[in-house]
Amino acid sequence: MECLVYKDASVVGFVLATLMATGIFLSYVPQHSRIMKRRTSEGLSPFFLLLGTVSAISAFANLLLYSNDGRICCRLGLSDFQCINSQIGMIQVGLQTLGYSLILVLCVYYTRDSLTENQREYAQLLKVYRFFLFYAFLNLFVVVYLIKRKQDTEIFVQFANLSGVFSSLVGGFQYLPQIYTTYKLKHPGSLSIKMMSIQTPGGFVWTASLFLQPNSKWSSWLPYFTAAMAQGILLIMCIYYKHTYNIDELEREQLARITEENLAYTSLETTDDGLLQ
């Protein structure tokens, strides 16, 4: 086990990486807040959330596996500081996965029974949420199994690389449904421009941070580079629509239409129940 690579830990680098890890999670707060404030997922593509969570989980699985050497070295004599520093990349990706997954969780639980939530889209969100839970537990099971059986080095590396490549591919495509949804609506809806304004430049900085981590693997930083590129396109679209259209009026009209449909559906259900009685 080559542990020397973890012993040259830089305090400055660690502080910057820690600040970045904190910033990664905090960058999602505007998106979380927007969903809670609007109580609707209007403007967010369910397929965008599906692909995003799958990509995040796969990237986290990749880092969990590749950071395992660092955890082994922690037991072989690394100091507490060196040990934590060896895991900073995994911590960053873990916080990113948590932050993104919370978007889906909030969409499912915070928009439930909301008059401004499209019921057809909510049904799709529930399906996405169930698949997210299944995929998360499946990856957790495989990762724990491979770590316990580290002697299967070839399978270990293959699955780690496969997770990274899969995350990169899915991450590159995840923005296509959202780009289409935003293009169709001509407004961001519950998609937070503030979040994207923070994350797009931050994504490139984060990519560089992961690239410069000790024992860094290309499959670990590539997903975040592709995601930053795609998110940049979406951000430009949202800014363009904001300055070209009256997006506040468009969003009000869309929510009013959804509310009207939900009230009509509720009224129809009440009428049907009355007839059955």
Automatic annotation (TrEMBL):
Protein keywords: Membrane, Transmembrane, Transmembrane helix
Protein name as annotated: Uncharacterized protein
Bilayer-crossing regions: 9-28, 48-67, 88-111, 131-147, 159-176, 221-241
Record-linked Gene3D superfamilies: 1.20.1280.290
Any single GO CC term annotated in Swiss-Prot or TrEMBL for this entry: membrane
Primary subcellular site in the record, as a coarse category: membrane
Pfam families from the UniProt entry: PQ-loop
Taxonomic lineage: Eukaryota, Fungi, Dikarya, Ascomycota, Saccharomycotina
Keyword Transmembrane helix recorded: yes
Compartments, as annotated in UniProt: Membrane
SMART domains cross-referenced by the UniProt entry: CTNS
Signal peptide: none
